[in-house]
Amino acid sequence: MTEPVMTDEIMAVRGMHCAACAARIEKVVGAMAGVVRVEVNLATEEARIVYDPEVVTLAGIVSRVAPLGFELIRAPETETLALDIAGMSCASCSARIEKVLRQADGITAVTVNLAANSARVEYDPERTSARSIRERIGRLGFTATVSDGGDGGDGGTRRAREALARRRDELVPALIFAALLLFVSMGEMLGLGLPGFIAPAVNPPGFAITQFVLVVPLLYIGRRFYLNGFPALFRGSANMDSLIAVGTGAAFIYSSWNLIEIVLGIDPFVHVRDLYFESAGVIIALVSLGKYFEARARIKTSDAIRQLMDLAPERATLIHSDGGTEEIMAAEIESGDLLLLRPGERIAVDGVVEEGESSVDESMLTGESMPVGKGPGDRVVGGTLNHNGVLKVRADKVGRDTVLARIVALVRVAQGSKPPIANLADRISLYFVPTVMSIALVAAMAWYFIAGAGFPFSLRIFIAVMVIACPCAMGLATPTSIMVGTGRGAQLGILIKDGSALELLQHVDTVVFDKTGTLTHGRPEMEELVLLGDIGRERLLALAASTEKMSEHPLAAAVVRAAVDAGAGLFEPRAFAAVTGLGVCAEVDGVAVRMGNFEFMTREGTAVSDRARRRADDLSDQGATVMYIAVAGELAGLMAIADRVKEEAPPVVAALKRMGIEPLLVTGDHERTAHAVGVKVGIERVLARVLPEGKADRVAALQKEGRKLAMIGDGVNDAPALARADVGIAMGTGIDVAVESGDIVLLRGELSGLIAAIELSRAVMRNIRQNLFWAFAYNVVGIPVAAGVLFIFGGPTLNPMIAGAAMAMSSVSVVSNALRLKFFAPVTPAKR
């Protein structure tokens, strides 16, 4: 029976205001048949939904969420192109452009604005391109250029900044009205005299009406709390806005009733001391201020993504078939285009150099500080910087297919993922708001009916409990830290693909290393040539390299490279034959040459002296692979080939041990070579002669010992082992790495990235625990104080305005604490 094919969608969520909203969506969608996984991220306002399309449709999920008051928006399959158009003189011009574009294949919508000389075109990038649209307009006699009003590529951030600007515009008048309201309501308590026409002791109606006039604009500015909070409450999915709406609404209604009685002359001098307009208005202003700071801080959590995206230039120079050049937007580049790169320009897309020589700075993606030489046939990657030469590059990977775009996409997914530590906060958030409302109601009724405290006092308790409770702090505690931490990791060349991997990595007590390309450079080199007969060094090297020239074995390439570097002349071999697992033989320059291991020499009848055997064993003990060379039936020499250990490997292994993590080595090499490498790097436990397909079984066996295990390899021949490990870490050997390998990818190919990844994991999880502690502690302490517990023992009560300010700042403090991760700096292994 075949496994069902699941669909994995990331969708924008509109209408969320606190953690209770996110938890509600997760509960409802997660309960739908066919939905396998749902993760709602309050910080990014996105939902990741994995579902079986045979059981449930995306439209069904969207329609199920809509009655909850939220909107799921799928990433559009079309793209929007904003154009500036020159040459239009009348309405017939704009109408002609619209008509022609609408008839073109792949274009779904067109709007041409004559007054602004602009156009917006929605199109399917699979069927047409931005350049073809622009050229089609050009054939009509108009000039179209791409403007900056399109989607850009970071629409979520743009919307967030626009929302932040709106909040800022509303905040200034809110704070002014709140200050005036405080002055009027509490001025006399602070010793500030009020004019007679609004003084409560002189003119109670004037005092009450002035506060009413000042609070109404504040309630209008904060209308979103009521427009979102009350509908959510009536739907049975109350959120933070519901708490603010009910609390301030109660204060406003009660005070308005007293205002009516004051105006009607019913005990005006009594009721004038029983107004809570300032509580309603100032709470709205302070919460709005807190939400503004929170939104501003949340935007900063995506700084790393924007910095990565900024590596790619907006424009590039296209070379036409006739040799002419044209500057175009990078979004218009198509696969197969020939691009001109001048000194100092960034490369827009991935491609291959066709003409020219230069050096390219790849440090922003690989960490390599020295520029890399590039010439015809060499690959270049978008986002890197051309230094001192002119290059002509043939684009082959554009748009979402570039290395940079894939990295950004994976970081986005990681930032939206949830580690298991978030589950507790999510469960509590789901029931938090109803619980708080119940506590507020019970506390107020207890004070009124049991303690006989009076209605005004009980109302203050009710409002204080309602507005101090903050589910947002709990909802933001985990995702903000994950967003900043994964972003910081990307800046350090550590691509973390899932929040769960980040949490698991902190608990790892064992790291299993692959040898080739991980602890070693992955490039075998000839270490030593031992002469055992009368044949000279250059002659023996030429015979050996000529014999190996036809072989496809990795060690053969090392022999040939050594001969070429030494300037030895090579011959054409005859009668070449390879014996699997033993060696090769051929006729070279009229003599029979055999190269291979000891078993091959024995099988072919070549005598090996005890001296030669001991020397071979010594070389093997040093980590080299030894090949015996026989010429005309006589042993002529030994060749030691080794994959050199990286200089950073020993300090990294030592650093792991100091962190309490045991390093292990798993390799397909024989015991002598494997243990020699282990000794060089400081690894005591070595598992040798393990074939690639057997590494996953060894990892599973180690896990059965109770180990929390990370596997680090090149991500190519050890992919099953990486997948089997608790955390799979793939080493990048260049920029165009297999970023799909492993849970974590070390983009710069440096072993020190392993230590940095573990340190980052611990720092992020420590940050999350701090956030969760303060979020829970704030509510656990704040709610009882607001309910009047201290007052029972002779202490003070909590003013609702102070409660509102504390609630607003709790979210800000959580996000600000998460932002500290932007300054995370790993300690180099040598300094640990």
Spatial shape? elongated
What does the main sheet amount to?
A: 7 strands, mixed
Low-confidence stretches: 149-153, 734-738
Annotation, overall tally of beta strands: 30
Task: Please estimate the helix content.
Answer: 40-55%
* Helix vs. strand class: alpha+beta
- Percent in strands: 15-25%
Query: What's the helix count?
Result: 29
Strand order of the largest sheet: 18-30-29-28-19-26-27
Mean pLDDT, nearest integer?
84
Radius of gyration: 35 Å
Give the N-terminus to C-terminus distance in angstroms.
52 Å
Could you provide a short overview of the structure?
Helices cover 48% and strands 19% of the residues. With 832 residues, it is α+β, with helices and mostly antiparallel strands.
List keywords for this structure.
six-stranded antiparallel β-sheet; 29 helices; 48% helix; seven-stranded mixed β-sheet; 832 residues; alpha+beta
List the helices and strands and how they pair.
Layout: E1 7-14, H1 19-30, E2 35-41, E3 46-51, H2 58-65, E4 71-74, E5 79-86, H3 91-103, E6 107-113, E7 118-123, H4 130-139, E8 143-146, H5 155-186, H6 204-221, H7 223-234, H8 240-263, H9 268-271, H10 277-300, H11 303-309, E9 315-319, E10 325-329, E11 338-341, E12 350-355, E13 358-361, H12 363-366, E14 372-374, E15 379-380, E16 385-386, E17 391-397, H13 403-416, H14 422-450, H15 455-468, H16 471-491, E18 494-496, H17 499-506, E19 510-514, H18 515-519, E20 525-531, H19 537-548, H20 554-566, E21 574-579, E22 583-588, E23 591-596, H21 598-603, H22 610-621, E24 625-631, E25 634-642, H23 649-658, E26 662-666, H24 671-681, E27 685-687, H25 692-704, E28 709-713, H26 719-724, E29 727-731, E30 744-746, H27 752-786, H28 789-792, H29 800-819
Parallel strand pairs: 19-26, 19-28, 26-27, 28-29, 29-30
Antiparallel strand pairs: 1-3, 1-4, 2-3, 5-7, 5-8, 6-7, 9-10, 9-11, 11-17, 12-15, 12-17, 13-14, 13-16, 18-30, 20-25, 21-22, 22-23, 23-24, 24-25
Helix pairs in contact: 1-14, 5-6, 5-10, 6-8, 6-10, 7-8, 8-10, 8-15, 10-29, 11-16, 13-16, 14-15, 14-16, 15-27, 15-29, 16-27, 16-29, 17-27, 19-20, 27-29
